[in-house]
Amino acid sequence: MSKKIVITVLVLFIAISSFAQSSINDYKYVVVPLQFDFLKGKDTYRTSTLLRYLFKKEGFEVYFDEEELPKELFNDRCLALYADVIKLSGLLRNKVQIELKDCRGSQVLLSQEGSTKIKEYNKAYPVAIKEAFKSIEFLQYKYNPSDYVGSKAKVISKVESIKEDNKEAEQAKAEVERLKKEVENLKKQKALADAKTKEEAEKKSSEIKQKEKQKMEVTKTETLESSKPKNLSDVLYAQPLDNGFQLVDASPKVVMVIIKTAAPNVYTVKGKDAIVFREGDIWFYSENDTKKALNIKF
Questions:
Q1: Is residue 145 located within the same domain as residue 46?
Q2: What is the dihedral of CA 68, 71, 75, 79, to 10 degrees?
Q3: Which keywords does the record carry (predicted)?
Q4: In terms of CB atoms within 10 Å, which of 1, 44, 58, 283 comes out highest?
Q5: What share of the chain is helix, strand, coil (3-state, %, to 5)?
Q6: pTM of the predicted model, to two decimals?
């Protein structure tokens, strides 16, 4: 029974190793962080330098995450694996694992545990990292350019481009909607302003007409008042004749003789090209486009 278990475990290990080997062989580069999460400070205990050395020894092109990358990798980050050292909990031992992820953060490989009983961290972590790295050495890395990695990078780039285009399209749509609302608000404001201007213009026009009407009434009243005789000496007394009246003043002196016409309250003036007529309660004398009021007592 135990023999079967050993064989099964061995088969699984070989299969997993074969898969991991196939995966890491697709990648040319490894990027190593200058600082791991479980350590304080950059390259503490020379852990980053050690991991870089180990990957270079296996044939990878290795760069720190903070140094200048080659143009090929700078343009396509999916051509690299991204290394990390994970500290595992342990009471009596310092234990770590080495993890490799792709550009999307998916795990490509997780090494075996590397552990040591050494307590001093400056000695313990380098020893544990070297032990964990043995499972990566076992894979015997050999770079084999893969269309899959390139195609995957292109697909990811295309997806990101589509996402960006969609985002820009949504932003443009939102901007169009905002501008539409702004135009509608401006139209409403203009309509309100035009209505207010029209109302004010009509009000002003009405006020002007009212003032003109009042002015005309005052002028008419003033004209009538000024046309009235100012004193009793202006009074003319009508003395009846067969065909009209003679008008005499207080002297008595005949001022004029007025002759009846076919029109009521309209008389011609004898010896002159003039007429006397009544308009309302006032009598007027009109001659050569000149008009003046008369105070006639009948």
A1: yes
A2: -90
A3: Signal
A4: 283
A5: 50, 25, 25
A6: 0.47
